[in-house]
Specification:
Helix 6 runs antiparallel to helix 7 and helix 6 crosses helix 9. The chain is built from 12 helices and 9 strands. The chain folds into 2 domains: 146 residues, no CATH class; 146 residues, no CATH class.
Amino acid sequence: MPEICKPIIVVSRCLGFEACRYDGQMLHESLVQRLKPFVQIMTVCPEADIGLGTPRHPVRLVRHQGEVHMIQPSTGADLTADMRDYLVGQVSSWSEIDGFLLKGRSPSCGPGGVKIYHGIDKVTGTEKGADMFAAAVSQAFPHAAIEDEGRLRNFHIRETFLMRIFALARLRQLMQQPSVAAISQFHASHKLLLMCFHQDMMRQCGRIAGNSDGLDLAQLMRQYAARFRETLQRQPSQRNIINALYHGYGWASDGLTSAEKKMFVDAVEEYRDERVTLATLQLLLKSYVLRFEHAYLGSQYFLEPYPKALFDLTSSGH
């Protein structure tokens, strides 16, 4: 496989880069530290970036007359206009973003689970949603992977996030120097990976890459990129992953003994019952690549969708 293409991700500045939280603290996230050698990071702290000091009085989101405002209760300041101006300038300054790793439940950059109060003075209730920053980047970069640090403590959510940002980075690299042959080869090497996300959409990507409609290169690249990104928006299912495993196995199974075939099938069932990880099955497929010098199976990013150094079995379970 070619050299790893580094994803471009935006990370909340308080997650290991600067003590810029409202209470003057900085949080240390092990995933962020492990990511640093493998990604290009840009940091944001919307509250600090609009000029609020550190430490500072907390802000909150308030739904008032049908619109969400950012209010600083201790001072009564309405920071909504300042935040909107900041968002317009910040988002327009970015052209290529593969993912966002944001501080969960933050009123200024939380992608979900953020409290939105019903009223400025007497609070009669709350709801939960995304903050103004997360809503803006979701609209500007609808296909980027967006998660918060809390959710990424779950193994399965973290693995999907990593799969997405590295696949999107490789797509971005393809788009810089596209050709009909390069698009076809790119799709061939991502076939099993896309199958994990959605099998029919994987086939749709394949039909576009085959270019039976005779599109010009710009149209072909545009259509393929749109469908590839849309496919990655789906959630990988265990059923689809097992199907991808069996597809890869089928390409190399003719050379296996009956005992080796049984071992693979048994391992898949153990994966189905969550007694072994996907990495166990990927390693078995890699062994077939080496044994049979199977170039096509070896070209599949499914076998190593992100750098091995980022693999971590720990999980919050939530």
